[in-house]
Write a structure and sequence with these properties.
This protein is α/β, with parallel strands linked by helices. The chain folds into 2 domains: 9-53 and 107-185 and 272-354, 3-Layer(bba) Sandwich (FAD/NAD(P)-binding domain), CATH 3.50.50.60; 76-106 and 186-271 and 359-392, D-Amino Acid Oxidase, Chain A, domain 2 (2-Layer Sandwich). 34% of the residues lie in helices and 32% in strands. The chain contains 10 helices and 17 strands. It has a 9-stranded mixed β-sheet with strand order 3-5-4-11-12-13-10-14-17, with helices on both faces. Strands 1, 2, 6, 7, 8, 9, 15 and 16 form an 8-stranded mixed β-sheet that branches. The radius of gyration is 22 Å and the shape is elongated. GO terms for molecular function: monooxygenase activity.
């Protein structure tokens, strides 16, 4: 066990105890690796945040042993519909079937399930209240230097370090000149207002897109009779209120939302950030630390789990296989192939997110009506709907 100012050997040190870091921890522990997961937050935040688990993500969670728990807690979205509201009536534009369904679960429940699984197979592996501040490469491994809430310095050394510490990633920023990974960032011209309210729509497990001239409105079911609403807005909202969002939803798509039932409210803009690589010496960048994409489309969390599926077996095999110590991994061609595949998937997800956002922007009423009519005709062809559903659910 680590002592202040000391260090201990691990096969892997995972920085970040969110859904991606916890998934890495579980997969590594299941493979027999000695893993520690460092999380700065002393307690888990009870915030819904990311809610969509796409079929490839559920596959990874099944390997992690938590899929059945989440399926029992969540809402399976097997169908989505696009509608337009105007002239006192609502018309259907298109309908999609998701097979397998998308699972909607609040992020805190997903983290709770992964944390319980990690505690089951590797008791004590999760260390809360430990803030990683820098990483130092060493011969055959790396050391993560941390500070606890009392300012005590602690070092965690491992053969591998997984940086799953979010889009701003202190670990990525602390790699140093020798292992610096170039990262391309760009702010996109989109802003959103999001809230969770009691569901009074009667849409049940249906996902709904309202294609309106003033901008798209999306709504998704959540457990417990709650529905998430996301509205594209003209500019960033500095001081959002549930009442303002409820009024916007009523004006734009005719939704009747009870502002008093709001359990989560958020306003956000969109930044896309893609790292040029995921491997830096003995550090693996994962999740948002490697590829931040727009939350519109809900692909970011699943991307991170797929990173874990790709890299956790390689980390475990390298650590447990007794490969000679050195700065690079054993079987470099396998690592390079995994990195190429994961970066390509991130670029594809980023393109899909940009398309989703472009389709959600405001248009003059006549152009919007014409576009919706074109969509209505196009989606009469079953193969178009099938292809679109596959893209939305990360299966194409």
């Amino acid at each position: 066990m680590e002592q202040p100012g000391g260090s201990a050997e691990h096969d892997a040190v995972v920085v970040g105890g969110g859904p991606v870091g916890l998934c890495f921890g579980v997969l590594l522990a299941q493979a027999g690796a000695n893993v520690v997961v460092l999380e700065a937050r002393p307690e888990r935040a009870k915030h819904t945040r990311a809610i969509g688990i796409h079929p490839p993500g559920l596959r990874v969670l099944r390997r992690a042993g938590v899929a059945d728990v989440l399926l029992a807690e969540g809402v399976q979205i097997a169908e989505g519909v696009a509608r337009s509201h105007g002239a006192g009536r609502t018309r259907e534009v298109a309908r999609l079937c998701f097979d397998p369904p998308v699972l909607a679960v609040p992020q805190w429940q997903t983290e709770e399930a992964l944390e319980a699984r990690l505690a089951e197979i590797a008791p004590g592996a999760l260390r809360r209240g430990v803030r990683a501040v820098r990483v130092e490469q060493a011969d055959g491994g790396a050391v993560v230097h941390c500070a606890d809430g009392e300012g005590t310095s602690t070092g965690f050394s491992g053969r591998w370090v997984v940086a799953a510490d979010g889009a701003r990633s202190p670990m990525r920023g602390a790699l140093g000149a020798q292992h610096h990974v170039p990262t391309r960032s760009r702010a996109l011209p989109d802003a959103y207002l999001m809230g969770d309210f009691a569901d009074t729509t009667g849409d049940g497990a249906l996902a709904v897109l309202h294609l309106e001239a003033a901008g798209i409105v999306e709504s998704f079911p959540l457990p417990g009779g709650v529905r998430r609403w996301v509205a594209h807005v003209d500019e960033a909202v500095v001081d959002p209120s549930a009442r303002d969002l409820a009024r916007l939803l009523g004006e734009r798509c005719g939704a009747e939302v009870d502002a008093a039932s709001c359990s989560m409210l958020s306003a956000f803009t969109v930044t896309e950030r893609l790292a040029a690589g995921m491997l830096a010496g003995r550090v693996v960048l994962a999740g948002d630390a490697a590829h931040e994409v727009s939350p519109i489309g809900g692909q970011g969390m699943t991307l991170g789990w797929l990173d874990a599926e790709a890299f956790a077996p390689l980390i475990a095999a390298d650590a447990l296989g007794g490969a000679p110590a050195g700065n690079g991994p054993a079987w470099p061609e396998l690592w390079a192939a995994a990195e190429r595949e994961r970066l390509a998937a991130a670029r594809l997800a980023a393109r899909q997110a940009r398309l989703n956002m472009a389709l959600g922007r405001a248009l003059p009423p006549r152009l919007m009506a014409a576009r919706n009519a074109a969509f209505r005709a196009l989606y009469r062809a079953p193969w178009v709907g099938g292809r679109t559903a596959a893209r939305f659910t990360m299966q194409a």
